[in-house]
Design a protein that fits this description.
mainly alpha; 9 helices
Length: 214
């Protein structure tokens, strides 16, 4: 495995952690009455398609829009996205779920909200997509996103079986809390990266100002 492939796989796994398939497994398996396999496939593919379109859009134009239109730097987005993601992870650790358990609207509605966004294309995933496209390029980021979304899709399609298996060991609650802790840790790292990028940018600007003054 060459270095480019290793970086790509690392990026894909990072996106997968942010997408967090566990939250989708729990949501889909908690729908009452249980949905048919056909309906599960429909919801899974629709929500994945919606999420991909959102993430593709922010990957391609997100950095430009942030900097040129809103005059927001990537490090600011990392801090803001990290704070929101940390709150989501903390909620999962404390309550054992990533979302409010009551679902409103039709099954078709949940394909867009909350599944497509914010559970798949959430604040953390959007922040990472913009950040990685700025650092590694659009092509690298899109390929990594596709890998992550395909794995998440497969787990959504198998959510009924996975949930049944985990319920035998009363493992869904602990799994949600463990993944919540991981999400919170990723959020803290995202915030630290944002602060670090800001400090590096500040130092560069400070040195340039000193050179001009001299």
């Amino acid at each position: 495995m060459n270095s480019e492939t290793a970086i790509l796989m690392s990026t894909a796994l990072y996106f997968l952690a942010l997408v967090n398939p566990a939250s989708k497994i729990f949501l889909l398996s908690s729908i009452n009455p249980p949905i048919s396999q056909k309906k599960l496939m429909e919801i899974s593919f629709q929500s994945t398609g919606v999420a991909f379109l959102i993430l593709l859009l922010v990957t391609v134009v997100g950095s430009f829009v942030l900097k040129s239109v809103f005059h927001v730097e990537i490090y600011s987005l990392k801090v803001a996205g990290g704070i929101i993601l940390f709150i989501i992870g903390l909620q999962a650790v404390r309550n054992g779920r990533f979302y409010e358990s009551s679902l409103h609207g039709s099954l078709s509605d949940i394909s867009v909200v909350p599944l497509g966004a914010p559970l798949i294309a959430g604040p953390g995933t959007i922040t990472a997509a913009i950040s990685y496209s700025s650092s590694f390029g659009v092509e690298h980021t899109v390929i990594a996103l596709i890998f992550a979304l395909i794995i998440n899709l497969m787990m959504m399609l198998g959510s009924a079986w996975i949930a049944t298996f985990l319920n035998r060991f009363y493992a869904i609650g602990p799994m949600i809390r463990i993944t919540g802790l991981i999400v919170a840790a990723v959020a803290v790292q995202m915030m630290l990266d944002g602060v670090g990028d800001w400090y590096s940018n500040y130092q560069i600007g400070h040195l340039e100002a000193l050179k001009k003054a001299m």
